[in-house]
Amino acid sequence: MRLRQKSCQNKPKSDDYTACSTAMTKKIASMAVLTDDRKSWKPQKYGYELWDSKASLEFTIVKLLDYRDDFDMLAQNDNPFAIVVMAHLKAIETRKEPVKRFRWKLHLAKMLYQRGYSKQDVLNLFRFIDWIMALPEEMEDSFDQKIIEYKEERKMRYVTHIERKGIEKGFQQEAYKLLARLLKKRFGVLPEWTAEKMQNAPC
């Protein structure tokens, strides 16, 4: 659970929520987005006591798990956050089912291209889906290939294969590690200057 609040001007040195809230001249509202998989866990207040003092906070909650029964509604909603919620729900649902996760990850990734989002929105959402719906390594290459084929069929240019590998997988770092392993296998221990040269080499 994460709590977010509007920052206040002339914020006290203490990070105490109550101190900051008191220093503000405008009213604020707090909301907690619950991303756990416990259906009945819905805390709506936080408090503590210290000596003779008490402090408490009540807040609105949004439980993403509650949207499980409204999945069809989310699928029809063009708001980018609907994609985020769907990916989160399917990540929980397919935690121990990699084949099912593969299918849903591919389906959600295709939706990014179908909804007319900006290139940056596609990149950001793609990054989130790729992170939260991680696949076994042997399935990732198959997923990449399916995305490439899908884009080529529709002549799409949004998230290119190079961008996909560079942004989502850390392509340059992975390429360096692979090259280092191959050289060590062939020549044994490498001198320090060799590793430095490879790290600083352009992509």
Layout of secondary structure:
Elements: E1 2-4, H1 17-23, E2 31-34, E3 45-50, E4 53-58, E5 60-63, H2 71-75, H3 80-93, H4 98-114, H5 119-132, H6 137-154, H7 161-168, H8 171-187, H9 192-200
Parallel strand pairs: 2-5
Antiparallel strand pairs: 1-2, 3-4
Helix pairs in contact: 3-4, 3-5, 4-5, 4-6
Keywords:
203 residues, 3-stranded mixed β-sheet, two-stranded antiparallel ribbon, 9 helices
Descriptive overview:
There is one protein chain. With 203 residues, this protein is mainly alpha-helical. The chain has 2 domains: 2-64, no CATH class; 77-169. The chain is 54% helix and 11% strand. It has helices at 17-23, 71-75, 80-93, 98-114, 119-132, 137-154, 161-168, 171-187, 192-200, and strands spanning 2-4, 31-34, 45-50, 53-58, 60-63. The strands form 2 sheets. The protein has a 3-stranded mixed sheet with strand order 1-2-5, with no helix packed on it. A two-stranded antiparallel ribbon has the order 3-4. The radius of gyration is 23 Å and the shape is extended. The relative contact order is 0.07. Mean pLDDT is 78; it is low at 1-9 and 11-15.
